[in-house]
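Appendix B, Record 12. Input sequence as logged:
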Amino acid sequence: MVIEDSFLRIKQQLLNEGRRFAVISLVNTQTSVPQKAPQNAQKLILCENGQSYGSLGGREFEMEAIEQAKACLALRSSKFVWIEEIPPRIDESFPDSTKRKIEVFIEVYEPPPKLIIIGAEDISLATAIIAQNLDFKIIILDERSEIANKSKFPMAHSIICGPNLEQALSPILDQSSYIVVNFQFNYERAVRYCLGKEWAYCGILGSKKKIVSLRKKLIEEGFSTEQLNRINAPIGLDIGAQTQYEIAISIIAEIIAVRHNKKAVFMKSVM
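Logged structural output:
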């Protein structure tokens, strides 16, 4: 069994690495008389790749709890679960003493979503400022270090400068990535690379005329309509935005709607 200090270190390490995992905690046991779990209750960490740490104190319990935790990870939801032990042999003269149930709480931990902003123009700064009070891990990509720096983007978790856009994107793109591509900076390279990858959201900041031109060009290059339809372009919700900050709000609002699988409507229409 992983002791508490070691358990907390492992948990913090997984959080720092941005990994998805579930913590299974024993909260109650039940035999003939319900009993509370001990204060130093057993816990088990299950990572998305199947790796586990810790123990619940019984193989039969653990196998079922792990299966339940896998389901929670797939659904991205936490829950309480009762698990009944199936002993290999039951003494009929003492039926209650040979059967046991445990209640576990399965808590899913998600890495903070990444907001990857490609291009360090002023509209990108406005978008980062609006997003900084949310739980996004803000990453700025731009080869121009004179505008892509901590002085301009103090809220950024990291700033990646360099001419190789594909190499910069490769280690950070995943299903928790929300990408904003600024039309003024290597947008075609960024879009081409992102079209073949997995992400939660990708939007292009640009005029309708430029978006139509880019779409036509990409179709001629062999990209499918299905691939292009994955991208939100032009980016943002239609709220009549005029200023940079209004546009940034429309971008972040759209990202929030996509993240929560919601269609943006007036609240009074859903009352």
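Residues 114-268 form a domain with the Rossmann fold fold (CATH 3.40.50.720).
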